Amino acid sequence: MELNMGLPLKASWGKARRPIFGCRYWSEGWVDNLKMKLGSIRWLPLLLAGIVICTVLVLIKVNMARPGGNQPHILVMMKAIDPKIEFWNTVGAGIEAARKEFDVQVEVQGPDNEFDVEGQIYKLKEALKSKPDAVVLVASDYEALVPWAEKIRKQGIPLIMMDSGINSTAANSFIATDNIAAGRKMGEVLSKLVDPSKQIAIVSHVQGTSTAIQREQGARSGLSEALQKSVVGTYFSNGSEDRAYEITKELLIARDDIGGIAGLNEITTVGAARAIKELGLKEQVKLVGFDSSTNEIKWIEEGVIQAVVIQKPFNMGYLGVKTAYEALQGKKVAPIIDTGSEVINKQNIYTIENQKLLFPFSSP
Asked: Other C-beta atoms within 10 Å of 318: how many?
């Protein structure tokens, strides 16, 4: 994989792209084609099918690398392995790119959904029996994973936290979006869009996760002084798009003073967008969300979502494995690596740089 990760916040983009299991990176020529296609929703099933196919192949390849041989064995314990969530699919592509580049064996494990904290703990307990050389952990709970993280470090195993942190300094390195800063961007955008006389609702994902805690903190701090006093509450979807839809629909039917909604991850944003679309309220209710799934891009085009704060999941997955490998080599690793975030809206969605962030790979 020809990536210049000396620039950790971006992949290196040249004219030619080496494929990941038949998936190509976007080149500049794709941007104009995509822009024409976005005028019709007919392109969406094809693009989504391509992403899903690529994802399945990535996960198969990553999970084929099992312990054994002389290569370092790195365990990646995900918060969830769910092919419907495009964020984790792209993280998986970054993991696979690093696996190939550094010639390591990567074992990817995780529960079926982000809400299954006990399921993640059980899978981590079982996976540690194979005695991995290093562990990359995406914590499903800020407190519950602390004893396991400290146990890993006491055994002398390098530990890299990725995406979601814990209430401990046990890890060698923490690789993630600065979620407070990203949430603050969301609040600032909402402040520009929402009438100060209106109310704001926050639709979050899983209570107790560091991402939910920090993004809400950032979003509230980014709101104007008037809107900070107008937050009606935080509502948790428990990792379910359908639940986020139901929460938003019930809230908007019950109250006509809601002028803005903050969706704190991909599934909450999509669920909230579905409700706003169904109720015909896209002019009255401004939605700002997180992440960059195909559905979110469609809703931006249709004016249902006004903006999303996007992360860099490919880089996150790549750097997780890369940093674990460097720790195994005895190299000093940075205690915190911020992978960055950007605000995407209808006005800037077509810039070359943003297209690379939105579509790190596509079907042939």
From this structure: 28
> In a 10 Å sphere around its CB, with 0-12 CB exposed, 13-18 middle and 19+ buried, how is residue 125 labelled?
exposed
**pLDDT tens digits, 59-75:** 544 444 444 568 999 99
The tens digit of pLDDT for each residue in 199-215 reads 999 999 999 999 999 99
Going from the C-alpha of 344 to that of each of 101, 165, 229, the distances in angstroms are: 31, 25, 26
- The pTM for the full model equals 0.76
pLDDT, greater one: 363 or 130:
130
Cβ atoms of residues 75 and 109 within 8 Å: yes
